[in-house]
Sequence to fold (420 residues):
Amino acid sequence: MSETPIEPRVVEAFHYGITPERISAHARQVVGRLQDAGYTAHLVGGCIRDLALGHAPKDFDVVTEARPEEIRLVFRNARLIGRRFRLAHVQFGREIIEVATYRAAPTADGGDGDNVFGTIDEDARRRDFTINALYYDPVEGLIRDYVGGLADLEARVLRVIGDPEERFREDPVRMLRAVRFAVRLQFQLAQHDDRLLARLGPLLHDIPPARLFEEVLKLFQAGNAVANYQALCEHHLFGVLFPPSAPYVGRDHRDKSVLMHALASTDQRITESKPVTPAFLFAALLWDPVHEAAMALIADGVAPAEAWQRVADETLQAQLKIIAVPKRFSVPMREIWALQSRFDRRGGRQAFRFLESKRFRAAYDFLGLRAQAGGADEALFDWWTRFQEVDDKERQAMVETLNEQPEKRKRRRRRSRRSR
Fold:
């Protein structure tokens, strides 16, 4: 049985600074052509939210009563995609306008996955947050609000649509999305939503590890890594995602940890449009437990190479049950860890060979983070920095200077034994 239809709040879009000129011309064209064909159609979701907040949307999504096959009949340049969630991509050169059909919540018998088509108000109720359920008609210049999104937008509150516990249980990843949106938009989580995160956090363990990997990248490689980490810790979700690192949350001076320096560096690189790699990120996220366990084994007499390998195996075995880190990232991550002990070995040709190593630069950058955090000798980092900058002749001189004092001590001991 369908729910009682909702009468929307309808307002002039210009009150929120939204005018057709701020909308992609292609998105307006898609809405107009669907309406000309006799279908209702609106722009929806994040693009309307961002426009109302004065931000520039990354893309524009359209929703309509037309079914996917009907959309394709209206647009020759439309391509239907997806099986679980059928929708159309209308392509205009490099710009793609995504067009979906109004959907209702799946029926009790499961229906056809997410392809349960419905009315516009049913579509609004099945979305995640109220501020993401605003419908804008650029032809009429009106916003339709079925779930109180405009009021929450004005109050800067992020609120789950419907019963929050039911919605979080329905898809626990919504908890991570709630944290990410609240941080990015600088909104407060609605109080009843906020209280649920710590209690329901363990439900994330039921999510496929590959999906959580993608969600972690959105949290930590989109420019708000430090703030997202702090929010995850506040809501007791970081330890759920990273069990090996959970004991280190809340320790003194965490703002000076390798992880915090790595997250701040990632944010800076994103701001400067520089590349970032998940291998480096995950090396930092798991560094504390790996380093502490490896040092304990080495102190017990285990060879460094064996200690790092054993600890890496055990830590990753525990972590991969929660988040699937692809081998193209986990392998270099392990090498970044293991190579940290190589920086102490600079005698003979070792420094030259290490400099030519494939992973030297990533390991060196990681050493820099450790030095900033007080976990590595700054003089050692400075030595390796200079070693990269000078020519081979000066490098040889640096190595020889480094070895002079130990050799002198060795010669003096030999002379002392002869004199006896």
Q: What stands out?
A: Strands lie at 9-12, 41-44, 61-64, 78-81, 87-92, 95-101, 134-137, 142-145, 157-158, 188-189. The chain has 21 helices and ten strands.
